[in-house]
Amino acid sequence: MNFDALLDREITRDDIISLLSISDKDARHQLYDVAYRVKTRYVENKVYFRGLIELSNICGKDCYYCGIRKSNSKVARYRMSDDEIVEEALWAYNEGYGSIVLQSGEIQGDQFTDGIEKIIRKIKTETKGELGITLSLGEQDDSTYMRWYDAGAHRYLLRIETSDPDLYSTLHPSDHDFEKRKACLYALKRIGYYVGTGIMIGLPGQTVENCADDILFFRDLDVDMIGMGPYIPHSDTPLGASCDMSGFDGSEQLEKALMMIAVTRIVLKDVNIASTTALQALNDLGREMGLKAGANIIMPNITDTRYRRGYQLYENKPCLDENASMCRGCLESRIQSIGETIGYREWGDSPHFNVRTGK
Ligand code: SAH
Ligand code: SF4
Fold first, then answer.
1. What is the DSSP-derived secondary structure letter of residue 247?
2. Which of 62, 64, 69 to mutate to test the pocket of ligand 2 (most atoms within 8 A of CB)?
3. Whose CA is nearest to atom 24 of ligand 1?
4. Which of 44, 128, 238, 286 has the most CB atoms around it within 10 Å of its CB?
């Protein structure tokens, strides 16, 4: 396939399917190189850090793939105190991180909404408004999203998981509604958030056509950021337990994820794309590979190590015992080793968001 010709014209669904179907190793590497060139042209070869704080593993939902789903009674549940959360955010700020992500299981209700609102305000005040705040707290009603936005959070990450309603229904109990999740993404955009979404790659039953449609879904939704990573089975979940682990090939799963990153970069061009921790779970150098295939965001886990074992969405999560500064030290040298720089003290919103909102 002539990749360069592809860059000069509108990319069709058939093109995307052909790109995602490439199986030849050299051709895959050529694809990653093209995606890297597109990245350098549209978003520079600078990596932005988002310090990830996993504030609670209490979850009201029961997604079939997730290790902290409500029905997994093996998980000891925790909720960090407000002071601990603010303290970790301030640590990130003092270390030069431009922004943080507050993530947790999905909890709804006034107590949770009020608590998060207070935390956002406190972090904003104590960092003179300088630390950017991304939320990844699941589906909420519009007024909750609005209150958190007014308090100072300006980005929200909510993965659609798959853009195919039929596949979605095989991954979730019947009261987890695909249309509702999609409506949340539209609500977030309406409110003014910088919106991130994404999928899991390599799900049982997922086809290349599904993945092509996922990329078109991102394009049609006009999102600012993509956070996607390989699906990694967790044995204490219905989906993980039903997976034939002898048939689970981590290296093929990793390649599929890298191909999705590369093709998404080629199609969407000026968005931010995360090189997720799940890539590193499959290969020690997985996140660097993600950057070389077109990603430009890394989310170092800055959650206190005492909580990390409680937040295993999937098994073999890396860095469970490393404290945040060790994580940063190892990341810095890894990133420099592939010739990229780090955007300290910058929010690093995607050019796409800035153009879309006229900022
Ligand atoms: N509760 C919130 C945020 C935390 S879960 C929410 O669901 O939006 C964050 C992400 O973890 C999910 O969107 C899902 O894509 C991912 N995840 C869950 N289980 C996983 C698994 N077994 N393998 C890979 N990613 C997983
Ligand atoms: Fe809860 Fe999110 Fe896991 Fe679903 S993916 S069970 S909402 S933490």
1. G
2. 69
3. 231
4. 286
